[in-house]
């Protein structure tokens, strides 16, 4: 196992590289990267955060929110994402979402070793918000389940619970994607290009946030047939119903606004996912689900403008106070 070294975010953030061996999808050696915010004293809980597609951890405000509440904060850059992306990798490519169990299990084990006697809360955004519930559902089939491994709750920020777009994309379109993926899994799908969401965020284009455009390009990474097939299998499993074993909070914007180019509504809407689908499928997590809208929020509710962002944090704090001992 690697040691903690200074992260690109600098003090007090550190990183550890997790060697995952040879990629089962045939793209050579792969790693994941665990990032932590150093915590002084004894934490009351711990948080592990997982990013979405075309994303990586840079949201220090989110980490400081949890640190101020007494949480030891960790974040995981998954294989082929952000800090874990290397030459020869197809960004974010994975043929099955369950392959992420390897780095998730490793991260959980490390966090538990560092903070052994406190509850652990998980949080994820967008595609990460699909990956984590599926992982928890599989974990819950094991002796002791999620709670037996110290997990106390799940916070999802605009999770990707279904395929956005026309209804036919969720039926015959999905079958066509699956067929193409068998022959050319890494071939990019021909999707409309849009940089609206990226432009709304990045400081060089008038947004509030600074991040690496190599790891999070404005128009996003290409979506491949194989990766989309893995996601659609994940959607199908969610829709059949999961049992994640812990209470959950699901946050989303109050509306969706799709646009090829940046529009003023991009700054006050989910420009990536259909928020109605998030609300529709939230109950499939199982257990105690709190599903809430944040008016005028962006796709990443914690990267919204000041007022909706403050509301997202307020709702998160209230939920934590209610559910996490």
Automatic annotation (TrEMBL):
A Pfam family cross-referenced in the UniProt record is Hydrolase_4
PANTHER family, sorted: PHOSPHOLIPASE-RELATED
Please name the InterPro entries in this protein's record. Answer: AB_hydrolase_fold (IPR029058), Hydrolase_4 (IPR022742), MAG_DAG_Lipase (IPR051044)
> Which species is this record about?
Aeromicrobium flavum
What is the protein's given name? Serine aminopeptidase S33 domain-containing protein
Q: Domain Serine aminopeptidase S33 spans what residues?
A: 42-203
